[in-house]
């Protein structure tokens, strides 16, 4: 948002130009090459309690990010709007979530016993998304969010929500330990029925064999604990 949210002190804005009540400055984008030119008309703000800001993109290289040029009207909230916002925020609380880890193992001769693990959270309050656990991302500023559709790119299978539970579809539930012999796990995946299974601790599953993929894998939910994701 240009203006108050973007530059709190216009005197410190780079390349600031003043023409009467119109102030123009450059705002950096989320790319070194992307910049936004902002022009604010502050004339009459004392009377109308609002001002207009026009933002134009000076450069737009591929992948410049989420800079949004446009014309904005920034105005002071009314007392009723302020009360409504305070009322909404006062009742906000953290959504319950289920944090879990998915262990992966490639079923091939000589493959490692555990090929890797994915730390995920399943937010009950936001059932349409799965997110990578931010603790597993180190210094990343925010979690990477996957939609339920994109979960197929993470685990290789789509999912749906049933009564607050995330249910993996098109999987073969494996009734053998994750550490069982490779041929035992392969036989069960190749012979087992394809169905759906809710994410729960101890769930071990594989994907149905497909001709285009020569290598099978088995995955297991190493832990699943419902707990608040963050303090509210």
How would you describe this protein?
With 232 residues, this protein is mainly beta. The chain is built from four helices and 14 strands. Strands 6, 7, 8, 9, 10, 11, 12, 13 and 14 form a nine-stranded antiparallel sheet that branches. The two termini are 25 Å apart.
Sheet having the most strands: 9 strands, antiparallel
Any low-confidence stretches, pLDDT <50, length ≥5? 139-143
Distance between the termini: 25 Å
- What series of H and E elements makes up the topology? EEEHEEHEEEEHEEHEEE
Instruction: Give the overall form.
Output: elongated
Strand content bin: 35-45%
- Category from helices, strands and their pairing: mainly beta
Radius of gyration: 26 Å
What would the average pLDDT be, to the nearest integer? 75
Q: Report the total helices.
A: 4
Number of strands: 14
Q: Into which percent range does the helicity of residues fall?
A: 10-25%
